[in-house]
Amino acid sequence: MDEPVRIAFVAFSLGFSCIFHEQMHARSAYLLGDPTGKNENRFSWNPIHHIDPWMTILLPAILYITTKGSFIFGGGKPCPINPLNFRNPSLGMCISAGCGPASNLFLAAVAFGIMTLLFSTAPQVLWQAPILIADGSMQPGILTF
User: Fold this and answer.
1) Three-class SS string for the chain?
2) Can you say how many angstroms the Cα of residue 51 is from the centroid of all Cα atoms in its chain?
3) Is 22 a catalytic residue?
4) N- to C-terminal Cα separation, the chain
5) Which of 27, 53, 79, 142 is most buried, most CB within 10 Å of its CB?
6) Tell me: the pLDDT tens digits for 77-93?
7) Whole-model pTM?
């Protein structure tokens, strides 16, 4: 995969998953009685509302440069939650805190499903070097991600 395409893919993936993660914190808190995230516009898909200068821009860029693209980590602006607005503050904090990591697991399962589907139907999309398939044919081989 060409480097600009890879950078764009990683940036989009990181941005989308970060926004989705923070939205799940805000939406679960809202369903449990706390409107703070909604009032702070955290239900929006606009990345501007979720960008933290350090965690979203600088840290991933520094890691990309220093590790030559082999390790990238980032995050978004933390979602504001006021536990005093919950009907049950301790349960509300547990649920709203857990919804962010649960959304990461959900996105990982979706990505795994897409990769499995692509591998079984069109392996040439994911692989470059030839490999020998059980039926004796040659198929493309090295994973490009």
Assistant:
1) CCHHHHHHHHHHHHHHHHHHHHHHHHHHHHHCCCCHHHHCCCCCCCHHHCCCHHHHHHHHHHHHHHCCCCCCCCCCCCCCCCHHHCCCHHHHHHHHHHHHHHHHHHHHHHHHHHHHHHHHHCHHHCECCEEECCCCCEEECCECC
2) 14
3) yes
4) 8
5) 79
6) 889 999 999 999 999 99
7) 0.77
- 42 in Cβ contact with 24 (< 8 Å): no
Sequence length of the chain is 145
- In sequence order, the 6+-apart residues with CB closer than 8 A to the CB of 44 are 50
d(CA 62, CA 69): 10
Cβ(37)–Cβ(21) under 8 Å? Answer: no
Q: Which among 18, 21, 22, 99 is annotated as catalytic?
A: 22
> Tokens standing for 3?
């480097």
Residue 78: CB atoms within 10 A of its CB come to 13
